[in-house]
Amino acid sequence: MRLASLPLAALFTSLSCLPAHAGEIYAGIGLPGLIVGYAHPVSTDFTLRGDFATLGQRSKTTNEEGIDYQAKLKANRAALLADWFVAGGFRLTGGVTFNQMKIDLLAQGAGRTINLGGTNYTLGADDQLRVKIEFPRTTPYFGIGYGHQRSEGLGFTFDLGASFGKAKITETHTGTVLSNASQADIDRELAELRDGVGKVRFIPQLSIGMAVRF
Length: 214
What we know:
Layout lengths: L1 H14 L8 E8 L2 E8 L4 E19 L2 E21 L2 E19 L4 E4 L2 E4 L5 E7 L3 E9 L6 E12 L3 E7 L1 H4 L3 H13 L6 E12 L1
Antiparallel strand pairs: 1-2, 1-12, 2-3, 3-4, 4-5, 5-8, 5-9, 6-7, 8-11, 9-10, 10-12
């Protein structure tokens, strides 16, 4: 979270040097979570923004390619954005996001049987299979939306867009049984994951919110 907030702090510093216009504080909810930010109009047609969004950390059990994993999700991102208003409050938005978005998968349990690449392995007490799915730290963002145009008072905001970047999948394994597992089986299992969740190439945004202009 601290890493993701650094670009946002830099933006707020730079915004203080812009010509004086009505600023805006806003908050929203949706994907990618709770959002807070600051917008600074530079003209009637353009606004610069910086915001931070988080889903926090979540844990659940999930099944991927026939294996039950304990999954932990961490999702935070900061964004530097520019809005171009094309019709009233409707706009096109572009920018860059700084992400801390990853999923950690863990398979373990003495006596449990898992299928790796077509071969069954019965785990011992010391066996663990860990898979990490991580999105790039920095990604371009493109979207459409409504709101953040220069005015005063309360306002409604809406965003639909995506940060574009391909997820990276890596694995580590420990324990007596898994240390002796066939590397070909492990490679096939990773290939199946890459053909599934590894094909995700963007982080969506679909959010609504309110803004206070001053």
